[in-house]
Protein: cAMP-dependent protein kinase regulatory subunit
Organism: Linnemannia exigua
Amino acid sequence: MESDSDSDSDDEDDEALEDPSPLLSMPANYMRGRRTSVSAESMVPSHQNYVKTVISKTPEQRKRIEVSIASNFLFKNLDEDQHEDVVNAMAEKRFRNRENVIEQGAVGDYFYVVETGSLDVFVAKNGNPAEKVFEYGPGGSFGELALMYNGPRAATVTATSDIVLWALDRITFRRILMENTSRKRRMYEAFLETVPLLVSLEPYERHKIADALESVYFDDGQPVVRQGDQGDNFFIIESGEATVTKYNEKGEEFPMPGLGPGQYFGELALLNDMPRAATIKAQGRLKCATLGKRAFVRLLGPVVEIIKRNSVNYQTIEEQIQQHQQQLVPVSSAPPSSNASPASTSPALASASPTPILSSASPIHAPAPPQVQLNHV
Ligand code: 1OR
């Protein structure tokens, strides 16, 4: 557990910024080290104990900041004053292709948001040469770890084109963005570790997913996704149960195995740009962690192959379903949803499935028989 008590600093932020140590758990593999010094351009006294950083900007620069942070989750839940303080404090920084913005081992001074261009992240471990582990594009952000944990930079971040960044000083980051960030990471950390799909990820990759997740709640019987609708979100069940229903071309309804905590759904529509292939409803109170499409693509990249592999199982399932076609018994013939059409159904799930051949332990849309299910994460 980190605290500022190892610091002999008399920096002004230390009085104002009680380190929320109980809130922070050190990410795995993260080296501790000396804290950095503080840097800020112009400081305006505030009504509180700290001073605010204000760097004057043109309206055009402000607009560019707004665009850059619009899709970044760390800025999402700020109130108006916090938002204003963050925009005021940001400094425009430009780097040329191949320049290092951050060097592993250095002290942390700024947190960065990418306006334009791209960057690669390299980590050198145990004396081995640095390996590329990640990349950033517009809207991405980095450099939070050293500021959150008062440690050395955990990675080298290098421009792979000429870039424009917005830099937020350490004090403002800690005062406004850190609490939210660490609370979310803490909130989802234990849960994400239990999601089979995500076990192969690095802890830091799960942290980034936590930053982007939002919890959504559904009441008993409430639909989460409707077959035939366009899909914009991916869901992981945090708690509760969900029913899965598949409709055939005639609008006949077939129940599929339900879903429980740790299982995911909604991936097919995002992967394949297809309409939703089934209807999922809450069975009792349901809590899901959800990711938007962009975050899904960006953050689940490392497990997309696993997701695709799981979804290939649908082919096998469909073949089995076709063999069992005669035995299918629809439970009703309600239309799936207003804009659903048979033609818009995912080919992988175009047929309804007889429940007995489906495993209830499989993720939705991958209700594979046991031998196929072994492919799952
Ligand atoms: P920082 O302040 O330590 C370097 O400065 C930044 O690179 C770091 O904050 C993160 O924002 C960013 N491990 C550590 N830092 C990473 C990683 C990373 N990826 C991006 N950064 N990874 C784990 C490698 C074993 C990569 C995970 C995908």
